[in-house]
Design brief:
Oligomer: single chain
InterPro entries: Bact_Lucif_Oxidored, LLM_FMN-dep_put, Luciferase-like_dom, Luciferase-like_sf
Pfam family, one: Bac_luciferase
Keywords: Monooxygenase, Oxidoreductase
Radius of gyration: 20 Å
Shape: globular
Distance between the termini: 21 Å
Strand order of the largest sheet: 3-2-1-13-10-9-8-5-4
Number of helices: 13
Protein name: LLM class flavin-dependent oxidoreductase
Structural class: alpha/beta
Organism: Streptomyces bullii
Order of helices and strands: EHEHEEHEHHEEEHEHEEHHEHHEHH
């Protein structure tokens, strides 16, 4: 099982000081967070993709390429690659290039994002979001597997004998996670191709996550890729920790209350009761994360959001230390102890190459 962190790359004022980091500071902070993740033994760093303030990660492969050059083991991924507004040809070539530079330590998560204006900025119609996701991935899937592609669809100019370059490393395309928190069509898409399904459940109660994951698992089996238990599932989460749980709540509350993703809504107590958000001690994070298996089954990847809402970099790096020292080692041991035989490992380039 893989454990890691993801960042949405928001540039948010620190509510306790009123200071807003510059874009450069935020970009450099994301890089420092990735380096720290490798240092403490986490498996994955993933960046979001946004094209509007207050977010900075508009070019994920540029950032991940830089991180690849400075790390040795960390798997580099995305928390969203916009399959609806990026050209599938460019995705195919950018991530194949990154594969070569990172010696295969690359996968990606496809999604539609949560910013409606991005569609017209890139010449698309939000009302076509699901059809765009389906058609664009159908082309991307072929571009990584066929040397010469003939293509004609609704949303881009035709291709005739087109070869995406470079070709995927070792002839093995990057593993694809299809990310969705609300669309059964995307769960079906992931199941149809035998790809991974990532439910970033930071906003949602357990029962909603259960329904989405069960749908994906059932359809994965329907399409002949294996049993429901062999489907590849990833989950999100959000944590803030201090040694003492009361200190964690007191310190995190002002950040939660104004967070651009979910601030100005339910109270911190209501949100932690209803969603995977855990604010407390490392032991409380371990205990709550272990419950995810009760409604999602045995899964392959757990990513945590830890740098949102204006938290200072120093605080975020302290959070990563706690993850690496006190949380993830326990989670690895506890999840492994109850993992049935036959549940597949998390996908890696080496594993996909061996399977081929």
């Amino acid at each position: 099982m893989q454990f890691g962190i993801f960042s949405v790359g928001d540039v948010t004022p620190d509510p306790t000081t009123g200071r807003t980091p510059t874009e450069r500071e935020r970009i450099k902070a994301m890089v420092a967070i990735a380096f720290k993740a490798e240092e403490v033994g986490l498996d994955v760093f993933a960046t979001g993709e946004h094209h509007n303030p207050p977010f900075v990660p508009s070019s994920p492969t540029t950032m991940l390429g830089y991180i690849a050059a400075r790390t040795e083991r960390l798997i580099l991924s995305t928390a969203t690659t916009l399959i609806t507004t990026n050209d599938p040809v460019k995705i195919a070539e950018d991530f194949a290039m990154l594969q070569h530079l990172a010696d295969g330590r690359v996968d990606l998560m496809l999604g539609r994002g949560n910013t409606a204006p991005v569609y017209p900025w890139f010449g698309q119609d939000i009302r076509q979001g699901i059809p765009l996701a389906i058609e664009n991935y159908a082309l991307l899937h072929r571009l990584w597997r066929e040397e010469a592609v003939d293509w004609e669809g609704r949303f881009r100019t035709p291709l005739e004998g087109f070869t995406a370059t470079p070709r995927p490393l070792d002839g093995v395309p990057p593993f694809v996670w299809h990310g969705s928190i609300r669309s059964p069509e995307i769960a079906e898409q992931a199941a149809y191709y035998g790809d991974g399904f990532f439910h970033n459940n930071i906003f949602w109660p357990a029962e909603h996550t259960r329904r989405m994951v069960e749908l994906y698992r059932a359809r994965y089996a329907h399409h002949g890729h294996g049993t429901p238990e062999q489907a590849i599932v990833g989950l999100g989460g959000h944590v803030f920790m201090r040694k003492n749980s009361q200190d964690a709540v007191r310190e995190f509350r002002p950040y939660f209350d104004v967070a651009p993703v979910y601030g100005h809504g339910p109270s911190l107590e209501e949100f932690t009761a209803q969603t995977p958000l855990t604010v407390g001690s490392p032991q409380q994070v371990v205990e709550k994360t272990l419950t995810f298996r009760e409604y999602a089954g045995d899964y392959q990847r757990q990513l945590f959001l830890i740098d949102h809402a204006g938290l200072p970099l120093k605080t975020v790096l302290e959070q990563i230390d706690l993850l690496g020292e006190e949380v993830v080692p326990v989670l690895r041991k506890e999840f492994a102890a109850v993992r049935p035989a036959g549940v597949p490992d998390a996908p890696t380039h080496a594993g996909l190459l061996a399977a081929r």
